[in-house]
Amino acid sequence: MSDHGFRDFYYHGGAFNNIDHDQQSYGGETDHMYRVSSSSIDPSYMSFTDCLHSTSMDYGSLEKAFGLSPTSSEVFSSVEGGNRTMMKQHHVGADELGGNTGEVTATLNSSVSSSSTEAGCEEDSDKSKKDGQPKGSDDGGESSKKGNKAKMKGEKKQREPRFAFVTKSEVDQLEDGYRWRKYGQKAVKNSPYPRSYYRCTTQKCTVKKRVERSFQDPSTVITTYEGQHNHPLPTTLRGSAAGLFPPSMLTPSPLGRPSFPHELLMQMPNYHHQMNNQAPAGSMFAENFSPFHQYVHQHQVPDYGLLQDMVPSTFLKHEP
DNA sequence: CGCATTTGACCAGCGC
DNA sequence: GCGCTGGTCAAATGCG
Q1: Which amino acid residue lies closest to nucleotide C11, measuring CA to C1'?
Q2: Intervals of chain A under pLDDT 50
Q3: Phi/psi at A106 (nearest 5 deg)?
Q4: How far apart are CA A209 and CA A122, in angstroms?
């Protein structure tokens, strides 16, 4: 949807022929949207980290790093680091999808301020508190059930950075190795498909994700992650990655370099920096999905939930 | 029985 | 101020 001010750039065979990027500001935030059209991509051409180092922000590298094959799957991704740009990015993703088979599009929305991203990283001041504290605990008097939300009033609402992926998938629930519990579902305006809300089931982990199907392209699923996992991937994945990935796939990258977001993350200076004061980065993605791209190719149902962990800080683009 | 999902209600923020 | 909408809660229900 060009009316968002986004343009396209094309990427062929490992070289960017044309990169176009535009941005918009939404209440202090700036959204970035990158679109990549590719006909042939060599996943081994460049690592994700390489891309990060070589360019300010190349989402095309995402696809490369992840080994995405535009011919087998389409992935749109977007990041946001502030407060409420999600809906827009959803629109972008959905719009961009229209008839673009064989393309890999990435959308990036980021906050103009990295500090906001990092600061807001772990604690979702608005919701995690709500979530973290047992609603009933403050018991309150009257509406002890739902009235406690109001108590967070005075505080400045600050959302955690979000990272959204738009994927071609038949299933709504994409597997990313973590366990999620659905805690809500809402009808999406202008869309016959509902949006589902999930929360990481790991205690103290405030990561949430939203999953909705694109109205314009029902075969497209938009997954938005919010927050950072402060724990390693569950070792016992029930009906999750463990069940979907052959044992051979759950092994360290044979190439010694990242081919999956988790690994990529570990090589990102910014990511390490960000993780330093919150979770053991080294263990965060200990469970390897390095051959993840294979899975992507085979199942066309990639879920890069963990990307949200790195992109917000790593891909942040600071406005001039 | 424990955990996950469903679903209606509630709340906050925003636009008019 | 009011209505709309997104997001969340939590009781009820389902499932293994």
Answers
A1: A145
A2: 1-73, 81-156, 237-320
A3: -120, 135
A4: 14
Residue A195, CB, strand C, below 7 Å = yes
Side-chain-side CA neighbours of residue A180 (13 Å): 26
* Nucleotide of closest approach to A131 (CA, C1'): C8
A7 exposure class (CB count in 10 Å sphere: 0-12, 13-18, 19+): middle
A185 touches strand B (CB under 7 A): yes
- The predicted pLDDT at position A318 comes to 38
Neighbours of A155 (CB within 10 A): 10
Whole-number Å distance, CA A233 to C1' B12? 33
Window 89-128 of chain A: CB closer than 7 A to strand C: 124, 127
At residue A126, what is the residue type? D
CA atom of A278 to C1′ atom of C7, Å = 26
pLDDT, tens digit, for every residue of A274-297?
434 433 333 333 333 333 333 333
Phi, psi of A183 (to 5 degrees): -125, 5
For A1-52, the pLDDT digits (tens) are 433 333 322 223 223 333 333 333 333 333 333 333 333 333 333 333 333 3
Give the Cα separation of A96 and A187 in Å (integer). 22
- Highest CATH level, class, for A166-206+214-232: mainly beta
Residues in chain A: 320
A135 Cβ nearer than 7 Å to chain C strand:
yes
